[in-house]
Amino acid sequence: MVLPVTETHGDADSHASAAPIAIRVSNLSKCYPIYTSPKDRLLQMFLRSRKALYKEFWALRDVSFTVRRGETVAIIGRNGSGKSTLLQMICGTLNPSSGEVEVTGKVAALLELGAGFNPEFTGRENVYMAASLYGLTNDQIDLRFEKIATFADIGEHLDEPVKTYSSGMYVRLAFAVIAHVDADILIVDEALSVGDAVFTQKCMRFIREFQKKGTLLFVSHDMSSVLNLCKRAIWLGNGNIVQAGPAKEIAEAYLQYTLQQVYGEGAELTAIQPASGSGEPHQEEEDLPVNHEAQVPPILNYESQVALQDNLARANGWKSGAAEITAVGLAREDGSPQTVFHGGERVRLSITAVSKEGLDRPILGFLVRDRLGQDLFGENTLPFTSSNTIAVEAGQFFCGEFVFTLPMLPNGQYSVMVSVADGDLYNNVQHHWLHDALILNVSSSKIRWGLIGIPFEKVSLKTTS
Ligand SMILES: Nc1ncnc2c1ncn2[C@@H]1O[C@H](COP(=O)(O)OP(=O)(O)OP(=O)(O)O)[C@@H](O)[C@H]1O
């Protein structure tokens, strides 16, 4: 295995069709009584069912589907479409008006801020309370507490009442608990997005690991997260299933629907089916305008600012003890320090490590990941040094440098994973791996589409006969 190594992402869905059913939702409905005045609500208590002083509001109506063990299924839909209502009934925190939910296995949920913890209790007390609700004994919680606290990483706030927590701290603790209760089914919603980049990455790593064996229901308005994590999606609208099927198909249909809502009736959007042979380009390659100039300035100012955050001391990861990364830095190409960079700028990324036991063929590598943990780009020293490898002795420091053009990234936070290994292309051993040694904060980016931007040199609009 050679650096940078892509961690294996769970592909549980590929065998999902043969797997037993983990969640069965049958004709599930939830009706809320809506009173025009509080007085009517009171009066209704006396009248019981003799006369209805309320209107019925069906938050969910006759919803049925199954999820097999090992599947990751997205639940999407506009605000108020019934997603939380459905998930609360799957968790057992809300009773259905009719229909049934059958769940095989232990369900743990990270649903909306505010759910779950007692605000008057400290974080520590809430961990014990929440974990015991998930069936853990006090002894089991004692044994796992350190891991939960390390995952949450909220320091001394753990002994303060939860009501004083920021939303990020709250989610950190809530996720740390559900990650350590041996859940078979996880339900995660948008609440996750309030965490910072380091925490979100930690959660995504946990989720990807969980996907290898567990069942996941993932609620999101972010279609790129849905496509990245899920193979199947269920679209809810006004309490009904609008469409269910492959995530790509559903996400595209949902996107078209939401765009239609934005455009209104003035423009009707129709789905386009590819005609046979439509994959062929309309123009021969040689007809396309080619710009031969070496350095063409971009016609738009795509500049995005990349602010650097050294996270080495707080980075998550693991080590064997044979070698350790001691510094990671991003500087100008000439090596001079800088804390704010621009997309398209030439930069130098350096990784310094120390050998503890002596390494025959050290390798240093890095990988830049977006907030969902998707690998964007990276490299390791091996392909460049295989013909003149260096050996390092115990106690010796060594440094790998990578000079490249910083790509233009959409706004957001990115983490830089770094690692040190020893070996060659076919046989190498990782010694120190840090998931988020550097954080890149990208702002003012004009890049709107895709994971990475490119500078467009020529864009035109003209009429053709
Ligand atoms: N206790 C309640 N009493 C009356 N109506 C309710 C109650 N709880 C939810 N609703 C209504 O049920 C509908 C579905 O709500 P739900 O919270 O499930 O939607 P959602 O899809 O999760 O929305 P969001 O994306 O905003 O979280 C909404 O119209 C909401 O106003």
Structure description:
The protein is an alpha+beta fold and 465 residues long. Among the domains are: 12-105 and 184-263, Rossmann fold, CATH 3.40.50.300; 305-443, Coagulation Factor XIII, Chain A, domain 1 (Distorted Sandwich), CATH 2.70.50.60. 22% of the residues lie in helices and 32% in strands. Strands 10, 11, 13, 15, 16, 18 and 19 form a 7-stranded antiparallel sheet that branches. The longest helix has 17 residues, at 247-263. Bound molecules: adenosine-5'-triphosphate. This is ABC transporter ATP-binding protein. GO terms for molecular function: ATP binding. It holds the Pfam family Wzt_C.
SSE layout and pairings?
Layout: E1 21-35, H1 38-47, E2 54-68, E3 72-76, H2 83-91, E4 98-103, E5 107-110, H3 123-133, H4 138-152, H5 167-178, E6 185-188, H6 197-211, E7 215-219, H7 223-229, E8 232-237, E9 240-246, H8 247-263, E10 305-310, E11 317-319, E12 323-332, E13 340-342, E14 346-355, E15 362-369, E16 375-380, H9 382-385, E17 397-405, E18 412-423, E19 428-443
Parallel strand pairs: 3-7, 3-8, 5-6, 6-7
Antiparallel strand pairs: 1-2, 1-4, 8-9, 10-13, 10-19, 11-19, 12-14, 14-17, 15-16, 15-18, 18-19
Helix pairs in contact: 3-4, 3-5, 4-5
The chain binds adenosine-5'-triphosphate (ATP).
